[in-house]
Write a structure and sequence with these properties.
- The chain is α+β, with helices and mostly antiparallel strands and about 550 residues long.
- It folds into four domains: about 15-70 and about 180-255 and about 365-400, FAD/NAD(P)-binding domain (3-Layer(bba) Sandwich), CATH 3.50.50.60; about 105-175, D-Amino Acid Oxidase, subunit A, domain 2 (D-Amino Acid Oxidase, Chain A, domain 2); about 255-355, D-Amino Acid Oxidase, Chain A, domain 2 (2-Layer Sandwich); about 430-515, Orthogonal Bundle (Helicase, Ruva Protein, domain 3).
- The protein is built from 18 helices and 19 strands.
- Strands 3, 4, 5, 6, 12, 13, 14, 15, 16 and 17 form a ten-stranded mixed sheet that branches. Strands 1, 2, 7, 8, 9, 10, 11, 18 and 19 form a nine-stranded mixed sheet that branches.
- The radius of gyration is 23 Å and the shape is globular.
Length: about 550
């Protein structure tokens, strides 16, 4: 659907309007209360909250929404046990409370998860130290989710764990999420409240007046020469790791430290049952993890300085893949051959606010807000605590809005989904999953779907109807938008789900409006991207010595 692009229209742009793409910019109002640059978790959260406050707000991203770290995170909504060891108690408290809020407000999207952590002699904290920390963890959450075990009892709980030098273990509660779907739900809710969101639009440097206040920006359609000059009372720079590229509020040099984290996608039977695993890597003592996610097992993560071009998508190095496989193999006493079974890999670059003197994993995950001359810049932060970032960014923006109402701390992070009768043909689990991922659009998704499409894609929890809905309603301009972010089957199925391409093409073709030539070009583009970014590096790993990256 190509909606009218004045504020308040609730415009959602589907790719079926691709041949009229320039109209997206031509129809924009030239004046806005807030212009948000960057459609990751922080930009999406600011957009939704500003729109909910009745402000004229425009969200722009030069790539796809959640293109960066917000679709390449570790998928954890967690309290951060390592913050205990680092003495960051305030961040721990903030994170645990944020986790509980998201669990309550986003059932079906943010899912509770029980985690096993084996403890080995000479590696990680002492059992009694960890037990004390977990007691604090539970106290903050006001829910008892942790237990400590002696070695023999822990072996009974997890008989598949390596028992050599085992000195005990614990279980505790955390949560997991589809990070890209969280971003997309925030954006969809912002649109429903009257905001306008556009992807693949480049924002030029901010033009300033003689007093250095932000005056205007030039925006350019990413695939045409169409451009517009827009003004806003305040610009929010939420561009993540690429924060310094022309939009920053502050005048002093930044302390942004881009850190790369790489991950593996493995078959679901690598771990028994629906339980996560956290442990300390034998090479360097860093905490790493593996847990069930979207029908597979997600394992991660590395934490190294990123020296590459921040405008390009990061790749996984052979040494990183080998490091993660070594860690898992040390915990599973008779591990299946993990390397050839790896389905995909992915890496994300975290925008960490820190001085750079500490080891990467020791850098605090605090966020930082700068406000200067009508520009608010968000630096750092983490997925779990995006709500705190949003509230502080809007509090800073309020100074430039001359008293305009901005809803702040204490407001919901996501709109409630009205209780409705569960549609026929859907199990309660599938219905809750759809409500979590699509919010109030879940009912529309089901009502407009062919009943035959309310079945999952083989080997995944994703329904075929989700692909058709995304193609019609969720800003899909390229095939990777659909398969890597709107749904995740490009990561969770072998070879990027290429075996299902004929059915995907038949199902989504009319919604996307692509002719045969465009489809063939998109498939070639997607295959090249998948091979470069997500194909497992089997031959490289075999030749690579295993060391801590």
């Amino acid at each position: 659907m190509l909606g009218h692009l004045e504020p308040g229209s609730g415009a959602i742009l589907g790719a079926g309007a691709g041949n009229r793409r320039h109209q997206r910019l031509e129809g924009l109002s030239p004046h806005w209360d807030i212009l948000v640059i960057g459609g990751g978790i922080n930009g999406a959260g600011v957009f939704r909250q500003a729109a909910r406050s009745g402000l004229k707000v425009l969200l722009l991203d030069r790539s796809d929404f959640a293109w960066g770290a917000s679709s390449r995170s570790s998928k954890l909504i967690h309290g951060g046990l390592r913050y205990l060891r680092q003495g960051q108690i305030r961040l721990l408290v903030q994170s645990v409370r944020a986790r509980e809020t998201l669990l309550a407000q986003a059932p079906g999207l943010v899912l509770p998860m029980q985690v096993l952590m084996p403890l080995y002699r000479g590696l990680g904290p002492k059992p009694w130290h960890l037990a004390g920390g977990l007691a604090l963890y539970d106290l903050i959450a006001m829910k008892r989710r942790s237990r400590s075990f002696a070695p023999a009892r822990f072996h009974q709980v997890a008989p598949w764990i390596n028992t050599t030098n085992l000195i005990g273990g614990v279980t505790y509660g955390d949560a997991r999420v589809d990070d890209a779907r969280l971003v997309l739900r925030l954006i969809a809710e912002g649109v429903a409240h009257g905001g306008v969101a556009l992807n693949y639009v480049t924002v030029g440097p901010i033009a300033r007046d003689r007093s250095e206040k932000a005056r205007a920006v030039v925006v350019i359609d990413g695939q045409s020469t169409t451009q517009r000059t827009l003004s806003a009372r305040v610009v929010v720079n939420a561009t993540g790791s690429d924060t310094d590229r022309g939009h920053r509020a502050g005048q002093r040099p930044g302390r942004l430290r881009p850190l790369k984290g790489s991950h593996l996608i493995l078959p679901s039977n690598v771990l028994p049952g629906d339980i996560g695993l956290s442990f300390f890597h034998p090479a360097d003592g860093r905490p790493v993890f593996a847990f069930p996610w979207e029908g597979v097992v997600l394992a991660g993560t590395t934490d190294i300085d990123y020296e590459g071009d921040l405008s390009r998508e990061p790749t996984v190095a052979a040494a990183e893949m080998a490091y993660l496989i070594e860690g898992l193999s040390s915990i599973l006493p008779r591990p299946p051959s993990l390397e050839p079974r790896c389905r995909a890999v992915f890496a994300g670059v975290r925008p960490v606010w820190g001085g750079g003197a500490a080891a990467p994993s020791a850098e605090p995950r605090w966020h930082h807000i700068e406000a200067h001359n009508q520009v608010v810049t968000i630096v750092g932060g983490k997925l779990t605590t995006f709500g705190h970032v949003v509230h502080e960014a809007l509090a800073a923006a309020r100074v430039f809005l001359a008293g305009a109402p901005v809803r702040g701390t204490g407001q919901r992070l996501l709109d409630p989904v009205p209780l409705t009768t569960m549609p026929r043909g859907l199990s309660p689990v599938r219905w809750q999953r759809l409500c979590g991922r699509y919010g109030r659009m879940a009912g529309t998704l089901v009502a407009t779907a062919d009943p035959a499409h309310l079945e999952p894609v083989d080997g995944t929890p994703t329904l075929w109807a989700e692909l058709a809905h995304a193609a019609a309603n969720e800003w899909v301009w390229h095939l990777d938008d659909l398969l890597l972010r709107r749904v995740r089957i490009g990561l969770t199925l072998a070879d990027g789900a290429m075996a299902f391409m004929p059915r995907i093409r038949a199902l989504c073709g009319s919604c996307l409006g692509w002719d045969d030539a465009r489809w063939e070009a998109e498939i070639r583009r997607y295959q090249a991207k998948w091979q470069r970014l997500h194909a497992p590096l089997t031959s490289a790993v075999q030749a690579c010595p295993v060391t801590a990256p």
